[in-house]
Amino acid sequence: EKNEKEVKKMEKQLESVQSDQRAHHDKMTSLRVELAGARRHIQSLEDTIERLQEELEEREMRESSSEEAEEFFQERRKKLEANIQRCQEELEEGQKRLYFLEENMQALEEERSEILEREEELKEKGESSYLRFQKITEEISSLKVQRSKIEVRIEDLIERVQENLDVDLRQVFHKIDLEGVVLSEVDEKVQSLSAKLRRLGNVNFEALEELKVVEERYNELKAQEDDLVQSKNSLTEIVEKLDNTCRQRFEHTFHSIRQHFQTLFRKLFGGGKADLVLEENKDLLEAGIDIIAKPPGKEPRSITLLSGGEKTMTTVALSFAIFQYKPSPFCVLYEVDAALDENNIARFLNMLDDFVDNCQFIIISHSRLTISAAEVLYGVTMQEAGVSQAISLELKDIKDKIGIPS
Fold this sequence. Notes:
Blueprint: H1 2-61, H2 67-165, H3 170-173, H4 183-200, H5 207-269, E1 273-278, E2 289-294, E3 301-302, H6 308-325, E4 330-334, H7 342-352, E5 360-364, H8 368-372, E6 376-384, E7 387-394, H9 395-402
Helix pairs in contact: 1-2, 5-6, 5-7
């Protein structure tokens, strides 16, 4: 609107200048006509003066001697001189007028040039303002089109929000301050929110009720989880205590059995050394145990490298070391003497005498020496085919009958 007023103002100025130009043009035309007339009048006067002078000269040549003629010519001369004087005065006046007209013409020409320059300048400004006016008009038209599109989009958005979310945006718009809002930013925000709505899919209006049920279930599960976590922590604490107790008890048991094993090994072998060694760089409860034995006259070696009899004697020493740490009223031995010679069986029976006062041994054996050391013998016989019969015999009674000291 401001630019439109400016264009109209410049158009009025241009019309005024053009009107002044036309007036000056008319005035200059009139002056040119007047100047031409003055020049013609001056030329006529000059011609008249020249003609009168010629006539005067001619009259002087024709003068007669008569007084009347002389008076006539004198009078005529005076008139001619007066006419010449008048013509000269008119000529001077015409020249002055001509000079004045020429000055006016020059001033008018200069003014005309200024008017033309002003007119050209106003035309250029008018064209520039007109182009600017046209551009602004086009921008206004474009903005009107954009505004119409935005209004259509807003109406569409209002309808979709009303349909999908049951929210009337018209009641919300009057609460929003749109001052300083950038349309491009609003458009980007609308596109972002539209994308989020598309990702959300259809709106579930029962979601709040479902959320309430889910929250109740979540709280219930959370309480169970907290209870389980608390139980887990308690169990972890108990396990740690048990681990510590097991480590302490294992360490005490291991050292006690180790000492008994070393003593019983020397007794069974009549010397030598033996040891129980825990695997290095392992947890105490998970570490393996190596059995190292050094029978008399041999190098220390693992039990896997010993002979059959040495393995048996070492195993018996370890078994009775465990039994000595935690004794039992009964002990069953199954053919432990099968791989032993008579000397080793004698050492085994000698060691067994140290335990018979506190434990009753049941030994399954085919060795004569082992059987002779028993108090009661139990056997199985088959007097009839397919019929087994168990019999018992106290060895003390037999010895008494045959006179063998017990």
